[in-house]
Design goal:
The chain is of the alpha+beta class and 76 residues long. The chain is built from two helices and four strands; from the N terminus they run E-H-E-E-H-E. The protein has one domain. Strand 2 and strand 3 form a beta hairpin. The longest helix is centred in the N-terminal third of the chain and has 14 residues.
C-alpha cells in the first residue's frame, strides 16, 4: 500500500462522539469503501471527537474528492 494517510472528519459539541460513530457507519457505506480499509473513532475530549479512514497514498485523491475530509495526516 505504500504510504498510508488517515483522512479525518472532526465533530465538536456535546454529541461529538455519537456523531463521529454515526459518521463512521456512513463511511463504510461509501461505494469506494472496501473491508480492508481501517476506520475508527477517536475521542479527544468531551466536546471533540473524530471519525477516520486510512487509505493508501495513491487512493487518497479519489477518497478526498468524494468524501471531503476536514483534514488528513500521514500514518507511521
Amino acid at each position: 500500500m505504500g504510504k498510508k494517510i488517515k483522512l479525518i472528519w472532526d465533530f465538536r459539541g456535546p454529541q461529538a462522539a455519537e456523531t463521529a460513530r454515526h459518521f463512521e457507519h456512513h463511511l463504510k457505506e461509501s461505494p469506494l469503501f472496501y473491508p480492508e480499509l481501517p476506520t475508527g473513532v477517536e475521542r479527544l475530549s468531551e466536546m471533540h471527537s473524530f471519525a477516520f479512514l486510512v487509505v493508501g497514498e495513491t487512493e487518497m485523491p479519489a477518497f478526498r474528492d468524494a468524501l471531503k475530509p476536514h483534514r488528513g495526516t500521514l500514518v507511521d
